[in-house]
Amino acid sequence: MSAPQQLLIFDAAHPRFATASRLSARHGCGYSAPAWTNAGIIAAERCGEDSHPPPHRLVRLSPSGAVDGSWPLPDCVDGFWTRTDASHTNVLVQADVGYGDDRCGSSRFSRVAALGEGGLRTIIDQPGEPTTITSGW
Amino acid sequence: MAIAAVIVVGSVVAARHVDQPAAAPLPTGVLPDGTPSTFLTVDTRGSHGHILRLRDTHDGRPLRDLVRTRTDDIDATRAVDGSLIAVTSSSCGASIVRFDPGTGRRRVMRRLHESATEIAVSPDGRRLAYITRPFCPTFHCPGACSGPGMRAPNMLVVADLRGRGGSAPKRTCRGIRSAVSAGVRTGGTSSSAR
Question: N or C: which end of chain A has fewer CB within 10 A?
Fold first, then answer.
C-alpha cells in the first residue's frame, strides 16, 4: 500500500492536523471508514501491496490504537461506509462487493449490516450494482 | 453581488425539488439485540432522483419514503431525542429539515448557501457538522482564490441548528481561505477500493 491511512483524533474545540493524535495500523495495513462508539473506534482495515486494497475486516480500537475486537468482511469489497446511531452504541455498515472484470467482478451485491453488542449481523444483501446508500439509523 | 444572486437561486432550487410524503409518527423502538428498529437509506432512481427511505432493521424492507428529490443529494441521521435530521443538497445550496418523531411532520430548520454532506448531529442536538466545498471563490477573487472550487480541499463546518429558518452567513474570500487552512479533509467515513 503506497500510503497507509491513519486515523486522526482531533481536539473538538481546536481541530488541527499538527496536534491531532494518530492511530496507525499494523505494518502494511491502513484504516478507513471510522465510526466512534462508546465501546471504541470502529474502522475498516486494509492490507496489501495494491495502491488501494479492499478492506478485509472491521476492527475495534481503543483510543490508544489497540485492537480489541475484529469481524471479517466479504472478499472484493469496493465501497464501504459506517455510521453510528445517536447513542453511539450501534454501527450501520455498508459494503459494496464486486468490481472489475476478474475474480471480483463475478458477483456484485451491496451488504448492509449492523454491528452492536451481538456482533456483526447482516441485515440485507441486495444483488447487482449498488443503488442504495445507507444514510444512518 | 453577482455571487449572492447565484447562491440564493441555488437554495431556492434545492427547496423546490423536495417532495413531501404524508406525515406519520416515526418508529423509535429497538430490536431484542439492542439495535434500533429502523435505519435510513438513500435509494437512487436512475435519472429520476433520490428517495430517503426508512427501512426495517430486521430484514431491510422499506417501511416509508420520507423525502424525494429530483436532483439533490440527500443525507439523514437521527438525533438523540428520536427526531430525524435530513439534508437535501445541491452544489450551491442545502436545506436542513427536521422530522418530529411524534408526528412525523417536517420543518425546514436552515437553508445553507453551500452543499452539505456527511452530516452528524451533536449529542445535544443543537449543532450539525457537515462537509462542504469552497466552490465559489472563482467569482470573488481570481487571484489567490481562483481555480476549480470543486477540486479544492473539503471543509468541515459546524452549524448551529437553533433559531428558525435562518441562513448561514455568506462566506467571504478570506473566510474560505481560513476555513480551508483549518479544515478537515473527508475520506474517513466512506471509501472506495477502486
Answer: N
Q: Which domain, by its residues, includes A80?
A: 6-127
Taking the C-alpha atoms of residue B77 and residue B98, their distance in angstroms, rounded to an integer, is 10
Instruction: Flag whether A51 is in a domain.
Output: yes
**Is A80 domain-assigned?**
yes
Q: How far is A99 from chain B (nearest CA, A)?
A: 8
- ipTM for the predicted complex comes to 0.89
The 10s digit of each residue's pLDDT in A50-84 is 878 899 999 999 988 999 999 999 999 999 999 99
pLDDT in tens, B110-153: 998 888 888 988 888 888 989 887 655 444 445 554 444 555 66
User: How many distinct structural domains can be found in chain A?
Assistant: 1
Domain assignment present for residue A133? The answer is: no
Q: Is A134 on the interface with B (CB under 8 A)?
A: yes
A73 lies in some domain: yes
- The beta-carbon neighbor of A133 closest among B41, B79, B191 is B41
